[in-house]
Amino acid sequence: MVIKRTGEVTFKNNPIALVGPKLSLGAKAPDFTCLKGLDAVRLNDTPAKARIFSVVPSLDTGVCSQQTKRFSEDLKALGDSVASYTVSLDLPFAQGRFCTAEGITNTITLSDTHNHSFGLNYGVLIEGLPLPLLTRAVFVVAQDGTIAHAEYVPEVTNHPNYEAAIAVLKKITIA
User: Crossing angle of helices 92-102/62-75, nearest 10°?
Assistant: First the structure.
């Protein structure tokens, strides 16, 4: 059964529907299959340490670009205690060009363009637009594979709460 959620998120102030469940704190992080380049990556392929999944509609837009660069910069202080991922429906080649052009080396881009499994399993796939997109969201997955932080940004064109996500990452990497 496909779960569709309405009334949680707007895009340019227009209500949109999201497909998939709304994840809650403490829940087991769902699996997914995304592409890193042409290689498939699943949740179990990510290291068993604190992980952040920064979800953006497209790296080719201003807020998405700023979000990716901001998390990349803020996470430098945590070093290799955190694995950082940006997830979008952009093709892996476009993601690679973006990271090269912006000098981003500490964040891995994951493309959900293959089967939208991240979008569906994390409840961030937008329904009803002419082009499939993911809504803006941030998930922190703890070392034990549970959701330690989940933010579905209420307006897709707005920034997430960077400080809240970083605070959770700091807390679980020190614990």
Answer: 60
- Tokens 């660069």 appear where? 69
Among 64, 83, 133, 140, the one annotated catalytic: 64
How much is the CA Rg of the chain, to the nearest whole Å? 15
CA dist 21 and 14 (Å) reads: 21
CA distance 84 to 98: 16
- Whether 64 is catalytic is yes
pTM above 0.70, yes or no: yes
Give per-residue pLDDT as tens, 3-45. 999 999 999 999 999 999 999 999 999 999 999 999 999 999 9
Task: Name the class of domain 4-174.
Answer: alpha beta
pLDDT digits (tens, 9 = 90+) for 113-134: 999 999 999 999 999 999 999 9
Question: Of 130, 48, 137, 39, which is closest to residue 87 (Cα–Cα)?
Answer: 137
C-alpha 164/C-alpha 125 separation (Å) is 23
